[in-house]
Amino acid sequence: MHINKHNPDLRFNVAQLLREEIGGRRNYTFSEAALPLDETTVLRDLVGSVRFTRTASGVLADVQAHSKVDTQCIRCLTAVQPPVQIVFRDEFHSVVEVTTGYALPKPDEDDPYFISESHLVDLGGAIREYGLIEMPMRPLCREDCKGLCPNCGADLNEGPCDCVEDTSDNRFDALKKLLDTK
To answer: Do 93 and 29 belong to one domain?
Structure first.
């Protein structure tokens, strides 16, 4: 069954799927205009799909998404939006039994994802975590970015600055004095 559903908060109700046998599936698509990753970094125009598969302890989420991230060029600090591909598979565990409402034991894995008591899977947290992993390590505005002048801070992509380049290196002056005494 494929359901095309716009879900602005990235939460999906899996109550019916949890009532099915292991192996049951649901497919959804999602889009989000902006999803903050942290205080300064934002995913823009997030579009993706998720396939939920019923497991013994909840649902397995297979997520494929693409987005752009608001960040800065590491050389000139210009705002850039490099593309980000987010692909992951992770399990979301039920905290209550869907038919009785009884609490279920916590899984043994470290830092698991959970399905809420109202049987909602919130993909937002998982997408944030995997999005941070997939961010470019050294984003550039362009491959030949010249960066900023280390003296005055001028953007060298806009042209040369008026700084006088000091080519002297005084770290070896003491050694030069030894050579001059001979």
So the answer is: yes
